[in-house]
Amino acid sequence: MDTRNAVLKLNQDIGNGWFEAPSNVSYTILGLLYGEGDFKKSMIIAINCGDDTDCTAATVGATLGILYGSEGIPADWQEYIGDEIVTISVAKGDCCRHVPATCTELTERVVRLTAATLLANQSAIELTAAESLIPETVVEQLLIGMKKPMELIYRYHAPYTFHMEFTFLQAHVTVEEGPDIAPGQSKKICLRLRNNCPVYDGMPHNLSLRWMLPEGFTVSGKTTLQLPAMNPHTNGTTTLEAIVTAGEHVEPENRIVLEIVNKNRFTPIYIPVFLLG
Predict the structure, then answer these.
(1) N or C: which end of the chain has fewer CB within 10 A?
(2) Residue 114: which pLDDT band, with cuts at 50, 70 and 90?
(3) Is 164 helix (H, G, I), strand (E, B) or coil?
């Protein structure tokens, strides 16, 4: 309880305890540590921490299941819960007859997908019946696989930033100095756009921009933008900055939407930005 309360106090600035992920992850780890490998004890400790108990229990149970298999579940719990999947989230009357009826059947389906999933993701792991072999170079191999994702993380990771993928471009959006805004205050919104489509004839995309703002808000910035082609000579990226200024009245929740129209495509793109009054 002392550890649980310390976690609650540590994360009190991110919410009122309503399903906050940092606390729930902590409660999961807390259950695993204080449970000392005992399935029932670990589950009960994690659940008694409160908050999003179904998720913390599922994570604790899945982790112990990976470590110990079904044999790690106490016999009385196995007998009470059983193997049948009982849920109201799947309307079996409206679905096809191929919905798995038991946990065992669902597990077998997932396991059968493993080899195809590893192959599709070009994994260096091979599943065999032999003893596991962990090469001495495993760290280097993992770092090679993580090099590109980590470059993206370090390049774009910043507070108050989010990423959106669209058909022909991807957008990295940053609200500088956070989403809080007061009447008459200005907020800078920075966008980094990248072309998703390799083009070898050098033709860029010409984009039209339109901001949809709450009543009384104004914005200054470009209304047109050219997105370079992505080819061996250019990386297909461009940046955009806009200054949004609040009016005399600010709501607790202020929703702003940037519409991007490419004249060569039928479907416009919408990027939402959320500001707190």
Answers:
(1) N
(2) confident
(3) strand
